[in-house]
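User: quick one, sequence for these tokens?
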């Protein structure tokens, strides 16, 4: 591989880099032109605005093509390995995303349950406190109503009385009090009792 080829340019002294795509395509063209030991093959190709002439033997061309082909196979193998690695990495990243989503959903569900329990507990405590306050107010209202009714009865008036049953008669005694006036009534009512 030392003397891959001699490059002659039109007085510019330009050379190709080793194993460049242009050189490989020229080598492939030279290999197809004949077989066996022959004198060096010359090929010319236009590159940009200058014409380049390359002289190389068939054995060197075959070795170059074989090296290029082996390199292509290695690159293809590496490409397949890289694609497989990329597929595995993508699958693993999707798995990680799925696991992260599950973990976040579980954390969110736990947070929602805790918040709901806290809100429910606060609601019960507030309800209990309001009920206790309501019961106290209701008791105070009943006491105020009782004293107010007693006050109204004493200021406006009241009725008081008692009765006795003797034989077939009922003695009724009522006393009415309306503010400053008082009235007493007694009455004897016969009871219709059949003997």
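Assistant:
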């Amino acid at each position: 591989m030392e003397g891959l080829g001699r490059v002659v340019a039109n007085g510019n002294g330009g050379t190709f880099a080793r194993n460049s795509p242009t050189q490989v395509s020229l080598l492939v063209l030279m290999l197809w032109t004949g077989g066996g030991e022959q004198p060096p093959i010359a090929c010319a190709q236009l590159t940009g605005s200058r014409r380049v002439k390359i002289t190389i033997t068939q054995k060197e061309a075959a070795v170059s093509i074989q090296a290029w082909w082996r390199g292509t196979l290695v690159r293809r193998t590496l490409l397949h390995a890289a694609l497989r690695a990329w597929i595995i990495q993508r699958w693993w990243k999707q798995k990680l995303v799925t696991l992260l989503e599950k973990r976040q959903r579980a954390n969110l569900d736990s947070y929602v349950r805790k918040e709901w329990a806290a809100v429910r507990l606060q609601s019960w405590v507030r309800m209990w406190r309001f009920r206790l306050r309501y019961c106290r107010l209701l008791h105070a209202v009943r006491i105020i109503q009782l004293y107010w009714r007693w006050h109204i009865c004493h200021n406006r008036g009241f009725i008081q009385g008692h009765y006795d049953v003797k034989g077939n008669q009922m003695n009724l005694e009522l006393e009415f009090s309306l503010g400053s006036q008082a009235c007493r009534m007694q009455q004897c009512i016969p009871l219709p009792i059949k003997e």
